[in-house]
Amino acid sequence: MSGARLLLVAAVIAGLSYPLGWALGLPAAASLAWKGAGVGLLALWAAAEARSLDGWLLVVVLAFGALGDVLLERDMVLGATAFVAGHCVAIRLYWRNRRAALTVTQRALALLTVPLAVLVAFLLPADRTMAATAAAYTLFVAAMAACAWASRFPRYRTGIGAMLFLASDLLIFARMGPLSGGGGALGLAIWLSYFVGQALIAVGVRSTLSLRSEA
Question: Helix 160-174 and helix 183-214: axis angle, to 10°?
Fold first, then answer.
């Protein structure tokens, strides 16, 4: 197995196993390292495979995701800012690789994702002072997801991965309102939809870029 493939396997193991550490009473530093390892290793894997500007844009997207994972445990604003930066880079990546043509249903989903997600995020928090902040953040992640869906990257990997990322954030806002009693099961759903989404995004983009470099 190549070094790059080992990084990918390690990333998946680290990301999927992270919730197992929640009940272990680990030191804060160890828990933080475990949390950042999944997407951080995905970024290292993407860097090992990068052969073009698009490949390096993917690295930056994942690096901001790993940074956001860590910073969220220390400062919500800094963590959210890192994720927004990553979404902006991802939008650039997907826009550079947009599909030449979309079906009616594909175009409709891409166009409706942003306003519907922003509206849902605005309505979810029980603390209405958080509504505008939730909607503003969701604008970026929803735009990222819509652009991913409209890109030439595979929808059953990158497209669905981006939608899972969006769903994870909406679940976070739902935990501030109607799902406030969701407990550990909700936390698990949030983490798995986020990490699996990131992994699908990375693998989908990388597979398409690899095919293009071999053409």
Answer: 160
Instruction: Tell me the whole-structure pTM to 2 decimals.
Output: 0.94
Q: pLDDT value at position 165? A: 98
Q: Domain coordinates of the chain in residue numbers?
A: 3-214
Mean pLDDT over the full length of the chain: 94
**Segment (H or E) for 26:** none
CA distances from 150 to 50, 91, 96, 98 (A): 22, 11, 11, 6
Q: How confident is the model at residue 23 (pLDDT cuts 50, 70, 90)?
A: confident
Amino acid at 140: F
In degrees and rounded to multiples of 5, residue 59 shows phi and psi of: -60, -45
Give alpha helix (H) positions in 50-182.
53-71, 76-96, 104-123, 131-149, 160-174
Token pair listed for 125:
């928090």
Residue 46 tokens read as 């993407």
